[in-house]
Amino acid sequence: MNMTADPRYLAFTLINAGQKPTLPLDRAIEDAAQKLELLSQKDKGLCHAIVFGVFRHRGRIDQLICHCSKLAFDRIDSKVKTILRIGVFQIVFLDRVPDFAAINTSIELAKPICGKKASGFINAVLRNISRSHKDIALPCSHKNIAEHLTAAFSIPSWLGKRWVARYGKEKTLTLAGILMDLPPLTLRVNPHKINRNALIADFERAGINAQTTRFSPLGLQIQTSGIAIPDLPGFNDGLFQIQDEAAQLAVQLLGPKPDENILDACAGLGTKTCHMALEMENKGNITANDTGENKAERLDREAGRLDIDIIRTTHVDMARAGFNDFSSYFDRVLVDAPCTGLGVLARNPDSRWKRSSKDIMRMAALQKKILNGSANLVAPGGVLVYAVCSCEPEETTQVIQRFLDKRKDFSPDFSGFEKHLPFFCEFGSKTFNKTTFPDHLNMDGFFMARMRRNKKNLK
Ligand SMILES: C[S@@+](CC[C@H](N)C(=O)[O-])C[C@H]1O[C@@H](n2cnc3c(N)ncnc32)[C@H](O)[C@@H]1O
């Protein structure tokens, strides 16, 4: 068997890599780009379906393995477990693969990786699951909601209990159900090159359906599935950037204007940085800061694709930042802080199995430091927007509350939503912060808050 050209073997290596707490699955897939290129289009599709499917359905898959294995689940070797999960996913969720093929390919995969004895075990468990999975019921939601959420919706028990305590059973079930769907592919048009209707028409000519987003004035949601992003018409010409609607709204809330001096404190790969630059008509200065390795290079490439040249990159640790690190104050500062990503589990199914309640506390502590450090760089009268792709109170409202309690040089900006997001605003009362949830408004779970530095008070 030629392992390198085998989609299931590649899926096996990607699942193992994506399970590591420090490596996002997207990154593991990017790192394997050359190996994926060796596969046919059909095999590449199979590999992707298995990798994402195993993470997305792992709750039910593991329930079935527990039920049908003579060996206690915790005692199963981790590589054997991964091969079992790949086999079960194909048997239960992938109609295009017959059960016998799912079982035989799993055994072939196991032989060189785990040995003969383990292959026999895998064979027995998979045959058992193939015969009986339709008769194995989900745990009852009335008797044990946490176990039900795990098996039915791949929500780990600690998170299920947390959400039920906060939202109640019904909302948690709805939210968990939505997170099992593939989220919409949303993009933001580059208004200096094309408008939304013209791009919709270009897409239509290529057989792709798209419709305008409800709140963001620049957003389009793609209705047609299975298209690789670089294959969308206009990608190479910089006509648009992929960005969820909630993330688009965060930049609108910041309100960047031409000729301003702006800091993107945690710029990452620069999706929001480029959005700001386009709002500024590519006039003024943006400092895109991030401590992450290799991100600046990719940000520069993306800015080049969009013909943007007002961004300079820096690598300051914002948890310790002060005026001397940048030697200027900024008119506006965006803090799109590192977070648990619990608002975007539908996009990143690997995150379901990597996070814990400790991560929420760890992230909250870091977010408070980064927000405080970044706030030092806001000019008197300037704007500070804090955003995270999480809906957990410790990372959202509590960070802001603590910040405003300590930093008397800042105040909530109650006019920001009304001024910059009037369509979005009509759904809520007058406020300076908002949380979006994936189970309504068809966008990511996201939090954003807008504050202002008082005119006189510099810390
Ligand atoms: C949510 S991501 C930013 C996403 C980005 N704004 C975008 O729209 O693509 C958070 C970023 O914070 C960076 N980061 C983490 N700790 C940091 C620190 N102490 N100072 C500055 N950046 C940090 C991470 O490398 C990561 O890229």
Automatic annotation (TrEMBL):
The record ties this protein, via InterPro entries, to: MeTrfase_RsmB-F_NOP2_cat (IPR049560), MeTrfase_RsmB-F_NOP2_dom (IPR001678), NusB-like_sf (IPR035926), NusB_RsmB_TIM44 (IPR006027), RCMT (IPR023267), rRNA_ssu_MeTfrase_B (IPR004573), RsmB-like_ferredoxin (IPR054728), RsmB/NOL1/NOP2-like_CS (IPR018314)
- Keyword list, A-Z: Cytoplasm, Methyltransferase, RNA-binding, rRNA processing, S-adenosyl-L-methionine, Transferase
The SAM-dependent MTase RsmB/NOP-type domain is annotated at 175-454
Q: Which GO MF terms does the UniProt record name?
A: RNA binding; rRNA methyltransferase activity
Does Cytoplasm count among this protein's keywords? Answer: yes
Instruction: Provide the protein's localization.
Output: Cytoplasm
Q: What is its EC number?
A: 2.1.1.176
The enzyme's main class, written as a single word, is transferase
Q: What is its main location?
A: cytoplasm
Spell out the CDD domains in the cross-references.
Answer: AdoMet_MTases
Q: Which GO terms describe its biological process?
A: regulation of DNA-templated transcription
Keyword RNA-binding in the entry? The reply is yes
Which residues of the sequence carry a binding annotation for S-adenosyl-L-methionine? 290, 317, 336
Active-site residue list: 389 (nucleophile)
Lineage, top-rank taxon, reads Bacteria
Q: Which GO terms describe its cellular component?
A: cytoplasm
Catalytic activities: cytidine(967) in 16S rRNA + S-adenosyl-L-methionine = 5-methylcytidine(967) in 16S rRNA + S-adenosyl-L-homocysteine + H(+)
Where does the record locate the signal sequence feature?
A: none
Function as written in the Swiss-Prot or TrEMBL entry = Specifically methylates the cytosine at position 967 (m5C967) of 16S rRNA.
- Entry's family note: Belongs to the class I-like SAM-binding methyltransferase superfamily. RsmB/NOP family.
Instruction: Provide the protein name.
Output: 16S rRNA (cytosine(967)-C(5))-methyltransferase
